[in-house]
Amino acid sequence: MVHARVPGTKGLENYLAIFGSREKKLLQAEPSWLTHLRKTAIERFSNLGFPTAQNEYWKYTNVAPIAETRFDFVPNQTLPEISIQQLETFMFGHPEWPRLVFVNGKYLESLSSQTSQTDHLRISNLRSVLGSGSKVFESYLARIASFEENSFAALNTALMDDGAFIYIPEGKVLDKPIHLMFVSLTQNGALTSQPRTLIVAGKNSKVRVIESYASLCGGSYFTNAVTEVFVGENASVEHYKLQRESERAFHIGTTEAYQSTGSKLASFSIDLGGKLVRNNLTVGLHEEGSECELNGLYYVSGEEHVDNTTFIDHPKPCGVSRQLYKGLISGKGRAVFFGKVYVHKNAHHTDAAQTNKNLLLSEGATVDTRPQLEILNDDVKCTHGAAVGQLDEEMIFYLKTRGIGDREAERLLSYGFAREVIERVRIEAVRTELDRLLLARLQDCAYFAWRDRMKK
Amino acid sequence: MVNQAKALIDREYKWGFVTNVEADAAPKGLSEEIIRFISKKKNEPAFMLEWRLNAYRRWIKMEPPTWQHVYYPPIDYQGIIYYSAPKLKKDRPKSLGEVDQEILETYEKLGIPLEEQKRLVGVAVDAVFDSVSVATTFKEKLAERGIIFCSFSEAVQNHPDLVQKYLGSVVPYADNFYATLNSAVFSDGSFCYIPKGVRCPMELSTYFRINAADTGQFERTLIVAEEGSYVSYLEGCTAPIRDVNQLHAAVVELVALEGATIKYSTVQNWYPGDKNGKGGIYNFVTKRGKCAGANSKISWTQVETGSAITWKYPSVILQGDHSIGEFYSVALTNNHQQADTGTKMIHIGKNTRSTIISKGIAARFGSNTYRGLVKVMPKAENARNYTQCDSLLMGDKCAANTFPYIEVLNRSAKVEHEASTSKISEDQLFYLRQRGISPENAVSIIINGFCKEVFKNLPMEFAVEASKLLGVSLEGAVG
User: Does A367 contact B at CB distance below 8 Å?
Assistant: First the structure.
């Protein structure tokens, strides 16, 4: 496939200038491999430029608004203090979970719970590792998320300043989920943050990580996040990404995972906000017998635009992948789904299934969906399906005959549609919270109204 | 089983003979002079020359597309002979008896002896030999009902108003690289006009065949079905064995007016190249139909077993309210064949419906890609689409890809897409074999079952041929 490049360097100067101004300081503070990495990345970014619609992978998502806006890296005014109470609504009712809090991309120790460095287990912010000379960190960082063709990953790699580093040693099973909270707080002017997360799960380990992206006020800002996940031999990782940025925010997220022999990955990507959102999720089943399950749910309203682009690579035999993405689109919202499954020549006994379903809830809501299968092997079982439709008139009628109003019936059915994804969430507190959030977005809680009436 | 499979796969292309007919050809290459030469040779009216030149001027500014999932060395467009006609006696033959005996024999070898068909099958055949239509049967019988079925050149001479009105109305001359090239140089093709309210009493058929070496074949088909009419059109293709690749860039335009139905069936069996991928036809074709009127229907059925590269997307523009578009396809790629084929359904009118059934079979080094677009425009209320693409893989060196594009701009649309890729299941094979069916026949039965949904949409005689073709091309490819 030919990757078209942006003619000229529109929108790049700002970032190149920031890199230039930081370069000297970084050279002193960071090990040389990291400076070299950053330099390669910024070069790649300046060569690639921001993607345009000529690039097949960006056909339906126009990032010109990001390229054209000048985002600052530091707020031009002092921000109000944030109290822990303000963050509580994002904590799923479990403030005791290990927690790292970032505000506008900067780690705030005062709001985070204890970080752990015992037993080689590490749950810490990235900045504290960047200059530490950690060998583990060096051997994984930027090895999973390639920035060769991804200009946003390149930009993040060049300018990453903070984020999270999670290392789970061999055999360790963490019972509590780790919560990474990326909070944005802007008042005037547009800010950008480039958070970076690296999760390394050693052999036979088990970990659950929740990444939350949220806003404390409805400003305009640009989050460019990159997460790398290494799933070791027979390890199991659950990764939740809950995105509820402000309705004026831009969010570009790149998540890439490397799976070792017999490993399992469950990924949840929930989008409930953002003006322009793009999630790139890449999972490489690089070693035999690994399994992944990717789930996605997006609620798009107003004039929001949400794009989920996933790529599952099956280079080795006996890989299993499952994918279910569902979307509710209302207002003048636009949803994009692009899912590619690639099965290599020697990947015998590959089993891949992919489903994308979209519900159009209003006039003016649009969807573009492209599930893709590329298969170079005969000994496989691969399926995909995509559907676009609206609520079934007969179902609405059925509910109406039972005394449920039109709008309420619609909400109830929409909720039922989305529920299939929420049900798969394995952490009860997260499941309950997602239920609540979804119902809130479906406006007044039709479901509860109905349930209350049933009780009477 | 492996040996049997080998014997079958190695079976040679049996339609690969060359007919020795002296050809009346233009020199190699493409220029304004060549286009003027073609136009003059065909004694065309001024508007046709104008149209060709416009296309040519546009074409020289265009770049060949690069997004496709097929690979081939760059084509030297100046190395192609753009016009080649078998040299005939001065006057065109009035009856079959006057047609060059050798040409008639060619068709006999192809299994469509004109005489026999005329007598037994009742199919009217407009045989395109290289670029010029040789003989058209049943023309008179059709003329009684006002149906015009003739070669494109004849249509330009006898019905210039119709040609001018509809030529390029579905595929404009600037549409894409190959359609534009075709618009500039097309030498002949078929023209069909069904008047208002007429149901065409027989299946119309064109048999294309590339004969002369180094010639590209650029034919153009235009079918216009007036209000309330019906026509079923068959197209079959074969080509002789040659070591070099030949380019085939045809254009097919269908126009269905209010309440009209056009059924277009293709069995494409161009020479696929030898088992090392040498030679074979590059089949780069633009096929598009327009359901211009309300309640009209266009149905494409294709069985693609030949060509080194097949690259085409028979499409339907559903403009009229309540119009219907259908696409049924079986694409087979064996040895080093490549196919990137599918359809586009553009829903514009209200209550429009489309169905896509695509079956891809890839064996050995074959690469088979389904690529399709379903687009529902903002005003297309209650549009419906159902798509099913299945791929069957035989051998671990082949490839199957599925690239659907679904773009929905209207909330009342209902679009479904399903696809699966797998190999022939061991269980199915075992089941058939334990009932004493040879591995050969078992595979054949399974493949025929796999393609049944498409075959049942072919006219009877084509269905038999298609089924046989598939058998010859594939039987035993599972080892």
Answer: yes
Nearest to A309 by CA among A339, A329, A285, A334: A339
| pLDDT given at position A355 | 94
The mean-pLDDT minimum among A349-358, B37-46, B366-375 falls in B37-46
Q: How many CB pairs under 8 A join A and B?
A: 115
Question: How is chain B split into domains, by residue range?
Answer: 27-423
Cβ proximity of B185 and B213 under 8 Å: no
Spatial separation of the C-alpha atoms in residues B34 and B42, rounded to whole Å = 12
Least confident of B33-47, B116-130, B262-276: B116-130
Find the helix or strand (DSSP H, E) in which A292 lies: strand A291-300
Beta-carbon contacts of A26 under 8 Å, excluding residues fewer than 6 positions away, are: A34, A35, A38
d(CA B31, CA B456): 45
Q: Which chain A residue has its CA at the smallest distance from B420's CA?
A: A383
| Cα separation, B128 vs B135, whole angstroms | 8
B248 near B285, Cβ under 8 Å? Answer: yes
CB-based contact (8 Å) between A369 and chain B?
yes
Distance CA A55, CA B240 (A): 40
More confident residue, B180 or B116: B180
Residues of A96-135 as b/e, b for ≥16 C-beta within 10 angstroms? ebbbbbbbbbebbeebbbebeeeeebbbbbbbbbbeeebe
* Residues in chain B within 8 Å Cβ distance of A370: 403-406
Q: Which two tokens stand for residue B402?
A: 């599925």
Give the per-residue pLDDT at A28: 79
Rounded CA separation A293/A279 (Å): 16
**Domain ranges in chain A?**
13-284, 391-456
- Cβ of A387 within 8 Å of Cβ of B415? The answer is yes
Sign for the pseudo-dihedral over CA of B351, B387, A268, A61: negative
Smallest CA–CA distance, residue B372 to chain A, in Å, is 10
Q: Is A35 exposed, middle or buried (0-12, 13-18, 19+ CB in 10 A)?
A: middle
Here the tokens at position B82 are 């753009």
On the 0-12 / 13-18 / 19+ scale of CB atoms within 10 A, A139 is exposed
- Local structure of B205: helix, strand or coil: strand
The span from the CA of B20 to the CA of B350, in Å, is: 54
- Mean pLDDT, chain B, as a whole number? 80
The b-or-e profile of A301-317 (16+ CB within 10 A means b, else e) is beebbbbbbbbbbbbbb
Where residue B337 falls among pLDDT bands split at 50, 70, 90?
A: confident
**Dihedral (CA of B238, B325, B402, B421) sign:** negative
What CA–CA distance (Å, rounded) separates A340 from B272?
A: 30
CB–CB contact B406 A376 (8 Å):
no
**Residue-wise pLDDT tens digits, A209-238:** 999 999 887 788 999 999 999 999 999 999
Are B400 and A372 a contacting pair at CB < 8 A?
Answer: no
Instruction: Write the residue in A365, A372, A382 that is nearest to B411 by C-beta.
Output: A365
pLDDT of residue A328: 93
CB distance A375–B391 less than 8 Å?
A: yes
Percent of chain A predicted with pLDDT > 90 = 58
Per residue in B157-193, pLDDT (tens digit) is 999 999 999 999 999 988 889 999 999 988 888 889 9
Q: Which residues of B34-46 are buried (b: 16+ CB within 10 A; e: fewer)?
A: bbeebbeebebee
Least Cα distance to A194 among A282, A127, A134 occurs for A127
Is A368 touching B (CB cutoff 8 A)?
A: yes
| Cα B267 to Cα A53, B8, B297, distances in angstroms | 37, 21, 21
Q: For residue A87, which of A107, A112, A62, A120 has the smallest C-alpha distance?
A: A112
Total residue count of chain B as it appears in this document? 479
* Predicted local confidence at residue A6, as pLDDT: 42
Rounded distance between C-alpha atoms, residue A424 and residue A296, angstroms: 10
